[in-house]
Amino acid sequence: MPDQPHVVILGAGFGGIGTLKRLNDANLKITIVDKRDYHTFQPLLYQVATDELTPAEVGFPIRELLHGRKNVAFHQALVESVDLARKQVVAEGIGPIPYDYLVLAMGAVVNFFRTPGADQHAIPLYTMDDAVRLKKHVLRTFEAVDKNLALIDEGALTFCVVGGGPTGVEVSGALSELLHVDLVKDYPNLPVAKAKVLLYEHSPNLLAAFAPKLQVYAQKALEERGVEVHTGTGVTKVGPTSIDLSTGATVPTQTLIWAAGLLANPIVNSLGVELVHGGRIPVGSDLQVKDHPGVFAIGDIAAMADGKTGKILPGLGSTALQAGRHVGETIKRLLDGKPAKPFEYFDKGFMAQVGRGAAVAELPTGDTMTGTAAWLAWLGVHLVLLNGAEEKSSTFVDWGWNILTRKHGKRIVLSDEDIETARSPN
After folding, report:
1. Please, are residues 198 and 234 in contact by the beta-carbon 8 Å criterion?
2. Which of 9, 239, 269, 287 has fewest C-beta within 10 Å?
3. Of these residues, 57, 170, 177, 201, which one is catalytic?
4. Is 170 in the active site?
5. Which helix or strand (DSSP H or E) is residue 61 part of?
6. Fold assignment, 6-35+77-109+263-335
7. 3.20.20.70, 3.30.9.10, 3.30.300.30, 3.50.50.100: which CATH number matches 118-260+357-405?
8. Is this structure's pTM higher than 0.85?
9. What is the arrangement of strands in the sheet containing 158-162, beginning at the earlier edge strand?
């Protein structure tokens, strides 16, 4: 209907999807714009990279979320700019999109901290493309070593990870298990025992946001799984076959996984607002952008604070999801002529998996969990948060298979030529 207020949601991550679902019963016209046609469950990307799950289990088609909703349109397009004064969005291949309410939920990009060579040679782990690229790289590296053992001395089987937060810890543990449980059987003629996973964290401890005893447990659990943990050590330069450390040492390696930080999506530079906290959009207690009523910023693109405590909130998927739900409710309140309410974050605690049978969890009460109990809790929480019944069931089956057999998925890599051949009618 032409008289319906128009809500434009930029980004179909946790924040954008949270907003959309809360507006399910509202009399609105809604347009979603995202450069990908699927929602990514980012906390499980490392399991795609280490062949525990498939991309189809971690990605959910956006258009499938819109079935039966005639008031919602989706455009797969790259957002080029946002004109807050004219209240319109410009996206690649689409004319200007006017809005009455705007939700900026476009997430972040990888922050290489201006480390020389990192943007060229490091493999980040923030998108589905990153996860698939890392999986292919690991398997192709083993194939190359199988043909030329001399590559081992050049660091081909030395896998380095930068960043000791949840992503770095989780991918380090999963990668070590992939190497020493699965690939050691796939390549019986290779000295896979020489394969190493090295984790570098510039601060004194892993998992900085967690309680000290959980930091200690996580490091010990990683080391028990064969991961070499180097805290107080940063990476100062990245090359195609080596990295330089802050200690002055050089490590031969052909794999550097970057899990060290994020920057707000570059679209923030087109807004004309003064940015804070590393280039993020400042928002009020109700998540609206200052001096721009009806414009909301949530998730990694924004400097969100708890409306009750004023504390800056962690960049977690659950935080963005809660913020998206709040924005959806706020838009409905504004439509009804009611004032916006402050966003009150419900702290559900922190969790990180270290490896099979090992995880850490810190509850809002301050209580902590480790080991198998925390691991089972981690599995349950992430299973519940997945979109789609099919994704939940297939993930449950894959995890069950992994637990029973200690085996990962089928380790195959399709080349571009294989994909084109499969598409050919002949």
Report:
1. no
2. 269
3. 170
4. yes
5. strand 59-61
6. FAD/NAD(P)-binding domain (3.50.50)
7. 3.50.50.100
8. yes
9. 123-124, 255-258, 158-162, 196-201, 227-231
